[in-house]
# Entry
Amino acid sequence: MLVFGRTGMGPGEFSYPRAAVASPDGDLYVVDKTGRIQCFRSDGRFSHQWRMPDTAAGKPTGLGGGPSDLSATAWVLYAPDTHYGRVLLFEPDGTHLGEFGSFGTGPGQFRLPTDVAIDRNGFIYVSEYGGNDRISRFSPRREYQFSFGGPDAGEAALMRPQSLLAAPDGTIWVADAGHHRICHFGPDGTFLGSFGRLGRAAGELKFPYNIERLSDGTLAVCEYGNNRIQRFDTAGRSLGTWGGAGRRPGELAYPWALAVGDGDRLFIIDSGNNRVQVIEGLGSRTWIRPSAGVADGGE
# Structure
């Protein structure tokens, strides 16, 4: 299997990487706790890097990618600047294009933004925690529209929504880390259901920090607390796990994030080991299947 990165501050090295996104041309962008965004080719070769403009208050915990009217290119990087209450936009070469949002609790403001997802129509969704604990939707021109999932949302209320996935059908999946579950919303914020509960068994979750969709429609969930990746169908049935606590290839230490490249190559941000591990495709031997009789963690 492909493994790249090591502890350090140089090119191709990491100091606790926490988020990643794959571009349509196959490059992987990774941000670590130094505030560096590094770009790698699909085979793990270092390409280039740049730094967030401000890092004294903290560093990003998420990355997203998609179109923007600020750029002539087809794809730009969205970096939720977690401790500065804003989202920054960059060209793939690191050129700073602009930003939106400000610190606060009002419409269009953020406290601690964690991730960005762009849906099929160009609408922008931003997750945040720190009291707001909600998802805000913006137009393709970054104009605030509405929020959902906040503290008063009843069964849809979120606790540290750490990452977002905009599905091809227009719906939004949320890794609701503090509630140890995955939530599903319509594009208008309607709550469609959830699956998962705290635990280590198949179908259970412990601090799910990231979610990605594979080409067959299944969902890969990165579990920070269980040191594994778990694969689900959209009904919440567990289809297997990968990983386990450790330092060897195939083992993980507090993984924060995932990114999906061409051919369902799954890039795993192995944060505590300061490296990236890659699962090549969806072969059945990749995943440890659930025990008989343990089907899901649905609610």
Observations:
- The longest strand covers residues 112-118.
- Confidence is low (pLDDT under 50) at residues 292-299.
- DSSP finds no helices and 24 strands in the chain.
- The chain has one domain: 2-286.
